[in-house]
Amino acid sequence: MKMNSLKLKLISLVMACMLANALIIAWLLLDSFQREKNTLAWQALQGAQETYVHLEENCTRTLSATLAALLADEKIAALYQQRDRDKLYRYTAPLFEILKNDFQVTHWYFLEPETAAPAIAQKCFLRVHNAALYGDVVNRVTYKNAVQTKTFSSGKELGKTAFALRVVHPYYHQGTLIGYMELGQEIDEFLSTMQKMTGDAFALIIDKRYLDQTEWKNVRNRKNLPQNWDDMKDAVLINDVLPNKEITRFEGEIEKIPAAGQILEEKQLGKSLYMKGILPVYDAAQRKVGGILILHDITKINSNMKRTLLYSAVSIFVLTLVLGGLIVFVLNRLVFKRLDQMNQTAIRVVGGDYNTKIVPTADDELGQFETLFEQFRNVFVNAVSGIENAESKTIKTKRPVKKRKPRRKP
Amino acid sequence: MGELYRLRRKIEQIIKDGNLDEHQTKGKITLECGLLLALINENTPDEVNALRKLKTAAEKLLGNF
């Protein structure tokens, strides 16, 4: 086939169009898969956020109910009013053990009221969870809110090394404000509960600015945990339920995490592929103090998508070949074969074959041309035949006639 | 017998000897040189231009002519 033939040009054009079409479809599929993955990641983020809010609400409700029961206990109120810290501790410590072991309550405070003498006002009277430490001024937002509103106040607050959900309520006895009682629960447990509920993996990180480095290192030493203060630039890992510590890294700025969360990246761990995202964590003062890293396993969906993409690519390739072949076959039959026949006939006619005829094969544009070509062939054949006959006669006329010798008369 | 007619006869002889498709070969030469071989006869005058064209076409399509 010649490089400049119409057949080659048309076939090239058809194949180029089909290839472009295949590429566009492949690109659309890839784009659609990427969107699907993003949607799934967003759904995982939303699910985690809802679960987290739900857990916090439930936990707040449980702490509030427990707190209400403790506030109504006459014995505890009487001991507190006696101002005998040891007696109060001895009575409440066994109760606290039950609350701690069975209901994950990690903090229990008796706080002086703001109306007390200036020397003791707003100070901690007793930490049931740490009786040795008392007498410090309490400046937490939840406490201040309870002082201001004289009702339940709750929220997450950072200590020097831990993040706890706290509920504070004014402590009344016979209508008189005698102080405040506070219960708290470290939210580390949230992560494993969230993992059980969603199937995703989580890690809690806190902005270093809200933690005390020395205290942090001391606590890690006391708990025999590896030092991790310098693992990240601006944040530190508090707790995690992740398959690999490598993926707890977050190098962004916690303050810049959007309220709805943020998709960070895709992360390959062994044979598993994860979509990593982060949700902001606010404290009781509504400061963005940390984040929950979320790892959503997309291995299965990703391999399904890849398989679908492969099948689609193969189908498109085969379909392109089949359609391309079909178009070439149809073009060949409808156009090129007929053009070639006319071409061959024209050559043969001028070569002296006056019997080869063009038979129109269809009533289409090319058929009309075939009819016209056949009419032209007839005119040509008649004209040439006429000339040939005339010239043949002329030659015969011009040929010299041999003179006959006269017969001798016997 | 003119030179043009002699050339035509030579072409026909080569086609015959080479067992070539007569009408197709003649047709190709005709289209190449623009002279209808069927109309070349012994009385056809030998125009220099026509002779040259026919010879060139024959050489092109039949080889060493």
Termini of chain B, distance in Å? Answer: 20 Å
Q: What's the number of structural domains of chain B?
A: 1
Helix and strand element order of chain A: HHHEEHEEEHEHEEEEHH
Low-confidence stretches of chain B: none
User: What's the helix count of chain A?
Assistant: 8
Shape of chain B: globular
Any idea what the shape of chain A is?
rod-shaped
The residue fraction in helices of chain B comes out at 55-70%
- CA radius of gyration of chain A is 47 Å
Using only C-alpha atoms, the radius of gyration of chain B works out to 11 Å
Outline the biggest β-sheet of chain B: none
Give the helix level of chain A as a range of percent.
40-55%
Description:
The complex is a heterodimer of chains A (410) and B (65). Chain A contains 8 helices and 10 strands. Chain A is of the alpha+beta class and 410 residues long. Chain A has 3 domains: 1-30 and 298-386, no CATH class; 73-188, Beta-Lactamase (2-Layer Sandwich); 200-297, Beta-Lactamase (2-Layer Sandwich), CATH 3.30.450. Chain A has a 5-stranded antiparallel sheet with strand order 2-1-5-4-3, sandwiched between helices. The model of chain A has no long low-confidence stretch (mean pLDDT 88). Chain B has one domain (3-62). Chain B is built from 3 helices and no strands. Chain B has helices at 3-17, 22-33, 48-62. In chain B, helix 1 (3-17) runs parallel beside helix 3 (48-62) and helix 2 (22-33) packs across helix 3. The radius of gyration of chain B is 11 Å and the shape is globular. Chain B starts with a helix and ends with a helix. Classes of the chains: A alpha+beta (410), B mainly alpha (65). Chain A binds chain B through residues 344, 346-353, 356, 384, 387-388, 391-392, 394-395, 398, and chain B through 22-31, 36-39, 41-43.
